[in-house]
Amino acid sequence: MEISVDQLYEFKACPLRYHFIEQGLPIKKTENDGLREAVKSTINYFYFMLHQGKLIGMEEMKQKFTSIWYDQNDIYDIKFDSKASKRKKELLAFEMLTLFHRQQKYNPDKTVAVNVEFRIPIAQDFYIRGHIPVIRETMRGLEIVNFKTSHTKQDEFWNRTDMALTLQAIGFHSIFKKEVDSICLQYLRTGTMIYTNRKTKDYQRLYKSLKMMKKTLDEGWYYPRESYHCDTCPAKQSCMEWR
Ligand code: SF4
Question: Per-residue pLDDT tens for 129-177?
C-alpha cells in the first residue's frame, strides 16, 4: 500500500469521509483550500526559477497566480462562493505574494533543492509519499521551508508533532544522510517565520502512530469523526445514511 501525505491528513480528519473520497465521491476544494494551493504553486514556480538562477519579478508572480486562479480547465477544482469572493481572494493572494516577494527581492534564498519528492517505507508493503517544498541554506544550516496561508499560527504542540513535518525530516534524512538542521514555517499573511526541528527520536512517535493507522485501514474501520470539518463536507448525505 502506498499513500500520500494529503491522504493521511484526510484519513486523520475523518476516516469515513476518506473512504467516500477513495470510493470516488466528487469533491471540490473550498475557496480557502484553493487559495492555499494556488499561492503555493506560484511560490513553487518562484523557487523553481530562482534555483535556475532567475529572480522573477512581482508582475510575473501575479501573472502566474492569475493563470492558475482563472484557469479554464479549473485544475484545482475549486468551488467559488461568488465572483466577488473569487476576486477578494485574488487580492488577498496578491498581498501575500507581494510581501513574500519583498522579502526575497534584495536577499533571495540560497536554494539547495526545490520540490523534493520522497517515498518512505513505514512497514512491510506500506509507503508514504510526499514532497519538501524548499530546502535552503541559512545561518541555521540546511532548512526545510513550508508556506502557510492561514491567519493563525500553529501552536507549539502541533509544531512539534505535525506528521507532515516529521515525514519531510525523514525524507530529508534519507537523501542527505543527516538530520535536518531547521524547519521553518513561513506565514505569508504576515511574513512571520516560526522555527522548529525534528530529531531521530521524533521519528519513533510517527512510525508508531502510522502503523496504527495502517492497521485501521487494513481492517476497514472507516468510522465517522464529527468535527468542524462536517460544515463543508460533501459526504454529509452519505454520512447520515451510515449505520
Ligand atoms: S459529515 Fe462529518 S463525520 Fe460525516 S463523513 Fe463528513 S466529515 Fe465525516
Answer: 999 999 999 999 999 999 999 887 778 888 889 999 999 999 999 999 9
Q: Which residues pair with 138 in a beta bridge?
A: 141
In angstroms, what is the span from residue 28 Cα to ligand 1's centroid? 15
- Ligand 1 centre distance from Cα of residue 175 (Å): 38
Q: Answer whether residue 79 shows pLDDT above 90.
A: no
Q: Decide: 108 in ligand 1 pocket, CB within 6 A.
A: no
- Nearest atom in ligand 1 to the alpha carbon of residue 236 is 1
| Ligand 1 close to Cβ of residue 230 (< 6 A) | yes
pLDDT of 219-228, one tens digit each? 999 999 999 8
b or e along 130-142 (b: 16 or more beta carbons within 10 Å of the residue's beta carbon)? bebbbbbeeeeeb
d(CA 6, CA 129): 9
Q: Where are the domains of the chain?
A: 2-240
> Domain 2-240 belongs to what topology?
Lambda Exonuclease; Chain A (3.90.320)
Amino acid of residue 12 = K
Output the CA torsion sign for 189, 191, 194, 195.
Answer: positive
Contact yes or no for 3/218 (Cβ under 8 A): no
- In Å, how far are 66, 91, 120, 215, 231 from 98, measured between CA atoms? 14, 10, 35, 45, 32
